[in-house]
Write a structure and sequence with these properties.
It contains 15 helices and no strands. By secondary structure, it is mainly alpha-helical. About 2% of the residues have low confidence.
Length: 320
């Protein structure tokens, strides 16, 4: 019940606001990503505490996300486009996964959930633009994206604050403002979901949906069991892997559509106009995937937490 109370009210508020202010998401998202996400990550990381084991989660998260992407890339019939491939692996670990961890896991596990989010965010915003646009990877652009990532800035800020003698007090002061940013992020997610609410899920997206909510977290759970990870590390790893498709997949797709439309207008050719219009589906498909995976994850993520607790694979405070 606490999980639903964390997520459902701000999502509903976003859906309601979208009726009167359909452009509100476009206005809120840029400052939220630029300033809110680093600030929120600083507060959450400080509250969870910086421990060397968090580096282990960073490596694990990068490995499972990269490995999952390679696997779905090898199945072009089931995952025909880059948005479908990213959407099957990259989860909404910030707007959905961290609130889920707050509701379903003890405070000691929060740092590991944030570590997964940092790794996934770095991966998505560093490699995602090139993958969505089908451009070859360039090390200079990847490094620039890594430095500019909100996750990198938030982590750096948390490390600097952790080195001060006031880090405990700062963690307390930043806790509720950081939670407020998470809540506002869920409102923005609701605003985004409203744009495709009522639209059916295309059949071509079913493989991505099933993979994201069921197959990918199941594979991560099998890996964690094989590595004999402790429950405090295993539970946030699996729950973050079970998070619904990331909004960043939609944002990257929208940016690519805008770039294609701008190129078509600049060219002034009929072929360019047709290509830009045809690319509109590039944003519609991930929007539908974000919507349906988020709605279904309201049920599937608590089920994953319940299964972990039933099997004794979740920290005691979460299993109670």
């Amino acid at each position: 019940m606490l999980f639903l109370l964390e997520l459902v009210p701000p999502l509903l508020l976003g859906l309601l606001l979208a009726r009167r202010r359909p452009q509100l998401a476009s206005r809120l998202a840029p400052p939220l990503v630029r300033w809110g996400v680093p600030f929120s990550l600083m507060g959450l990381v400080l509250r969870g505490g910086l421990r060397w084991q968090m580096a282990e989660m960073l490596v694990l998260a990068l490995a499972v996300v990269a490995g999952g992407l390679l696997l779905v890339h090898a199945l072009p019939r089931q995952f025909p486009g880059p948005a479908e491939r990213l959407g099957a692996v990259v989860g909404n670990t910030a707007y959905f996964g961290i609130p889920a961890a707050l509701a379903l896991l003890p405070p000691a596990a929060l740092g590991y959930a944030i570590s997964y989010d940092l790794a996934a965010t770095l991966f998505t915003w560093t490699l995602g633009p090139s993958l969505i646009a089908r451009r070859p990877l360039a090390w200079r652009s990847l490094l620039q994206a890594l430095v500019a990532s909100p996750a990198s800035q938030g982590l750096l800020g948390a490390v600097l604050l952790q080195l001060t003698p006031w880090h405990t007090q700062l963690a307390g002061w930043l806790w509720w403002p950081a939670r407020a940013v998470v809540w506002l992020s869920l409102v923005v997610l609701g605003l985004r979901m409203a744009a495709v609410l009522g639209s059916p899920l295309p059949r071509s997206l079913w493989p991505s949906l099933v993979t994201k909510l069921l197959l990918f977290p199941a594979a991560v759970l099998a890996l964690a069991l094989g590595l004999r990870l402790p429950p405090l590390l295993l539970a946030p790893l699996v729950l973050q892997a079970a998070a619904p498709t990331a909004v960043s997949v939609l944002l990257l797709s929208e940016a690519e559509v805008s770039a294609a439309e701008a190129a078509g207008r600049a060219a002034g050719r009929a072929a360019g106009g047709v290509a830009a219009a045809g690319d509109a589906g590039l944003a519609q498909r991930p929007a539908a995937l974000v919507l349906w995976s988020t709605l279904l994850a309201l049920v599937s993520v608590p089920l994953w937490a319940w299964l972990l607790g039933l099997a004794g694979l979740s920290p005691p405070a979460a299993a109670s």
